[in-house]
């Protein structure tokens, strides 16, 4: 393969910034819908999990269809119109998702949230699938694509900082009730709109887009199934995303009930974001020098080992040091911040590398078949990822209900020790076990990739 020219930094920045709003939409509902439903609407935890699952089941169909549709229109109008419409509708539907908190019964509330999330997920599909496909089209060089995704990862971190780190502090700052939820929803919806519009309005058509129409959806799905390296990477990403989704679902519960200090969420996410940003050039260097495969395995295994240590957290503890502008920092709180930094280092590594390897498999199939399948391949990848973020809350809801977690219609209430233990298991042992299963599946990838490459 001839070496591709370097993309201008401005292109990578304009592409990457769209991930800020996309990440806010991805993370905030994942982290807060179960909390919103159980503490504001009085919905039992297991029903809250089902309310998230049903829209995600629709996405399994919607994402590949949206990808196929964007493939078929790509040669004529590009993918920008999908991004434009998706950005606007995603932002509006996100705001509505947390706007209503008074219903005649918890079941009516659960049904309303389920319907709103279905509409929001459809709108997000119109944006996220073509957006991911563009990453495979911006450059034919695998290391250049890793660099593109590193820029995207920086804005992913910004989205996590906003969507996970600021959401609950904003809600509690404005009273913790319906007013707080509405302020958060309105502000975050505006952030989604402004950032997601940037690539929609500024990128145009990528330089290496295939200039022929893609085949129909059925033919594209058959091509995807025959692309075994792609299938393997998608399966690995699905398992990793389930592990992360389980953790995301209970992060608010962990800081409220297990750590006993919801104000630690923002410092935790800040240190995690700092670790992620620092690690980007490191992972780029390591993947070039040692290869993406060993770096991915190392990052994932390290994340699993660290995740297990959350079993040891508890409220309070002795003071470690007094800091300016902070006050007393306990040993437990220092441990939380240290975990956040290391999680940022490892999490950023395996997310960056799995996405980079996914674009490698798409590029391989494009060279092998000569077909424009970026959209449907990205759609399948995106659908499995979104499905995982439905399975995560479902697992969490089942475990929380089994552990005795009690729902409420008037905010946070005290929980039993069994419920707190269930929360910690969902933030440690369960996600670590699922992620290790992903590593086992991934060990097949290098050999499968080599066999497929021999056919090119």
From TrEMBL:
Superkingdom of the organism of origin: Bacteria
Alphabetic keyword roster: Membrane, Transmembrane, Transmembrane helix
Gene3D superfamilies: MFS general substrate transporter like domains (1.20.1250.20)
Alphabetical GO biological process terms: carbohydrate transport
Residues annotated as domain Major facilitator superfamily (MFS) profile: 1-446
Gene Ontology MF terms: symporter activity
Transmembrane portions of the chain: 35-61, 82-101, 107-129, 149-171, 183-203, 230-259, 265-286, 295-316, 336-358, 387-407, 419-442
GO CC terms of this entry: plasma membrane
InterPro entries from the UniProt entry: MFS_2 (IPR039672), MFS_dom (IPR020846), MFS_trans_sf (IPR036259)
Family to which this protein belongs: Belongs to the sodium:galactoside symporter (TC 2.A.2) family.
Protein name: GPH family glycoside/pentoside/hexuronide:cation symporter
Organism: Sphingobium boeckii
């Amino acid at each position: 393969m001839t070496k591709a020219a370097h993309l201008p930094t401005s292109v990578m920045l304009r592409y990457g910034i769209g991930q800020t709003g996309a990440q806010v939409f991805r993370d905030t509902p994942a982290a807060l819908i179960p909390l919103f439903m159980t503490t504001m609407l009085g919905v039992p935890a297991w029903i809250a999990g089902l309310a998230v699952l049903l829209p995600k089941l629709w996405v399994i169909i919607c994402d590949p269809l949206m990808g196929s549709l964007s493939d078929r229109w790509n040669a004529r109008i590009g993918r920008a119109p999908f991004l434009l419409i998706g950005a606007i509708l995603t932002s509006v539907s996100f705001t509505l998702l947390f706007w209503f908190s008074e219903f005649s019964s918890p079941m009516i509330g659960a049904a309303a949230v389920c319907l709103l999330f279905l509409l929001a997920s459809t709108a997000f599909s119109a944006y996220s699938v073509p957006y991911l496909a563009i990453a495979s089209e911006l450059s034919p060089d695998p290391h250049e694509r890793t660099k593109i995704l590193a820029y995207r990862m920086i804005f992913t971190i910004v989205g996590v900082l906003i969507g996970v780190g600021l959401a609950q502090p904003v809600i509690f700052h404005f009273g913790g009730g319906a007013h707080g939820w509405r302020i958060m929803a309105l502000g975050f919806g505006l952030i989604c709109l402004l950032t997601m519009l940037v690539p929609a309005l500024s990128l145009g058509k990528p330089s290496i887009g295939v200039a022929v129409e893609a085949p129909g959806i059925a033919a594209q799905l058959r091509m995807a199934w025959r692309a075994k390296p792609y299938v393997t990477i998608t399966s690995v990403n699905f398992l990793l995303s389930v592990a992360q989704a389980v953790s995301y679902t209970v992060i608010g519960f962990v800081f409220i009930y297990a750590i006993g200090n919801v104000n630690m969420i923002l410092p935790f996410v800040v240190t995690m974001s700092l670790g992620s940003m620092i690690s980007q050039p490191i992972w780029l260097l390591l993947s070039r020098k040692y290869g993406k495969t060993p770096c991915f395995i190392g990052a994932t295994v390290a994340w699993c080992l660290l995740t297990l240590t959350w079993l040891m957290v508890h409220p309070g503890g002795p003071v470690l040091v007094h800091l300016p502008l902070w006050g007393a920092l306990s040993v437990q709180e220092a441990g939380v911040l240290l975990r956040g930094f290391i999680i940022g280092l490892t999490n950023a590594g395996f997310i960056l590398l799995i996405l980079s390897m996914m674009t490698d498999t798409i590029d391989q199939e494009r060279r092998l078949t000569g077909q424009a399948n970026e959209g449907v391949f990205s759609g399948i990848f995106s659908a499995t990822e979104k499905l995982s973020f439905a399975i995560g809350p479902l697992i969490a809801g089942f475990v929380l209900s089994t552990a005795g977690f009690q729902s409420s219609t008037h905010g946070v209430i005290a929980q039993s020790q069994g419920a707190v233990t269930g929360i910690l298991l969902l933030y440690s042992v369960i996600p670590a076990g699922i992620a290790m299963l992903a590593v086992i599946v991934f060990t097949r990838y290098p050999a499968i990739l080599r066999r497929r490459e021999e056919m090119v």
